[in-house]
Every structure is written in structure tokens, then in C-alpha cells.
Amino acid sequence: MRFEISAIPLTPEIYKKSLTNPSCGGFVSFEGWVRDFNENKDVTHLEYEAYPALAKNEAVKIIQEAYEKFGIKNALCVHRVGDLAIGEIAVWVGVVGVHRGEAFKACEYIINELKVRVPIWKKEHYSNGNSGWVECHECKKHDHEHHFDHHHSHK
Amino acid sequence: MKKIMIQYFAIIKDFTGKSEEVIETNSIIASDLLNEIFTKYKFTIPQSQLKVAINDDFCDWGQLLKEGDKIVFIPPVSGG
């Protein structure tokens, strides 16, 4: 039962091998890939950043919950950080269980919870040269704090 | 005054232009310090969209700050 953060490309075959267990009949994995569009914008590449200590604590907690809820035998999750090109693997989750049912459920649980709880952030870089942190629509810098009488729109 | 170490990540790091700093503050609780940082670096994020961690554990906005604490304000996450 592990969670890792990797600054280099992920290696699913090695992770899968590390989960091998003769008493397990089911292995389920999920890979999250870098996609070339989001919300109608062309994405050229992504940048991921993590708060490593807390990301690790929270992810291990999630994996522990998956154990307790679904009775799986082992699980591993690895998240990439740094600059990623289109098509690269951003996150890998692998779960083994005695039967497939609990492995499917636990794998989905782990990735779903990771996406909303673990302090990791994705910055998208777009084909028009702009970039932006995802989910931060209401995060605002006050660029013109001395000019409150201005009525031009702020991005 | 107490010394608190603040680490900045993602959009908050972009706004402050640094990844960490030690500040001397009179802020009593975590939410006071958040407002101090909003004022100092001239940005805002609705507090309801943020989380806060002290010494690498999630905590409440009402948590008392102690000399030597490490605090992180966590913007909306987007991993996976």
C-alpha cells in the first residue's frame, strides 16, 4: 500500500509487477493521460505541482479507506509532477484483490477521491500562449489596486 | 509577534512570487494570517475554496498559530 510522487515518466509495468500476489485473482489499473483540449481550449502541455508531505498523507489515507471499504489486498498510486507532454501518464492507480469486483471498485474510489482531496495542482498551457491553474476561476490578483475608479474589465 | 513559516503552492505561489517565507505576525488564527497574506500580496480567493494545513496536517481556519508553525494555504486541487 503506497503512494508516490514522481518527477520522471511513470513506469506501469514495474508498478504492476510490484503488486503481484499469488492469492489475488484480479488486477485493475487506471491511467490518467494528458489530453490536448479542455473546456474548448487547445492544450499544448501541462504542469503538475504537489505539496508532497500532505499529498502523501492524504493519498495513503484514501488507499487505507479503499482497503477497509472493499477488502482489497494491495494498492499503489503514483502521481507525476513537473512538465508533461500530451499523451504522457499523469497518474497511475493499480489495485489487486482476490476477485475482480473489489479491485474495480477500489480503483475507481482511489482516483475519484484523489482528484478532490489530494493537494496536487494542474496548470494548463494553451496554444495561444496563455496558461492557467485549473479550478481557480475565482482566484484574483488585484493588478490595479490604486485605480479603483477605473471601469475596464479585469481578467 | 511570532515567527511562522509559510509555504506557497500553485496559483498562490504565482501570486506571491515565492515558494516560501518566514514572517513575523500578530495574526492569532489561520484565517487572520490568510487575510494578512491577501493584503500583503494583493490577491483574493474565496476562503470557502481554500483549505489550510499546519505542520503538514489539514486543520480548521480557527486553529491558533504558534511560534515556529509551518502553514500552507491550499488552493482548489486539480490532480489526476
Polypeptide structure, described:
- The complex is a heterodimer of chains A (155) and B (80).
- Chain A contains three helices and ten strands.
- Chain A has helices at 12-18, 52-70, 100-117, and strands at residues 2-6, 26-33, 37-38, 41-50, 74-80, 82-85, 89-97, 120-126, 131-133, 140-141.
- In chain A, strands 3, 4, 6, 8 and 9 form a five-stranded antiparallel β-sheet that branches. A four-stranded mixed β-sheet of chain A has the order 1-5-7-2, with helices on both faces.
- Chain A starts with a strand and ends in a 14-residue tail after the last strand.
- By secondary structure, chain B is an alpha+beta fold.
- Helix content of chain B is 24%, strand content 32%.
- In chain B, strands 2-1-6-4-5 form a five-stranded mixed β-sheet, with helices on one face.
- In chain B, a hairpin with a 2-residue loop joins strand 4 (51-54) and strand 5 (57-59).
- The longest helix of chain B has 12 residues, at 30-41.
- The chains are: A alpha+beta (155), B alpha+beta (80).
- Chain A binds chain B through residues 32, 48-51, 53-55, 57-58, 79, 90-91, 111, 114-123, 133-136, 138-143, 145, and chain B through 7, 9-11, 13-15, 42-46, 49, 51, 53, 56-58, 72, 74-80.
SSE arrangement:
The complex is a heterodimer of chains A (155) and B (80).
Chain A: E1 2-6, H1 12-18, E2 26-33, E3 37-38, E4 41-50, H2 52-70, E5 74-80, E6 82-85, E7 89-97, H3 100-117, E8 120-126, E9 131-133, E10 140-141
Parallel strand pairs in A: 1-5
Antiparallel strand pairs in A: 2-7, 3-4, 4-6, 4-8, 5-7, 8-9
Chain B: E1 2-7, H1 10-16, E2 20-25, H2 30-41, E3 43-44, E4 51-54, E5 57-59, E6 70-74
Parallel strand pairs in B: 1-6
Antiparallel strand pairs in B: 1-2, 4-5, 4-6
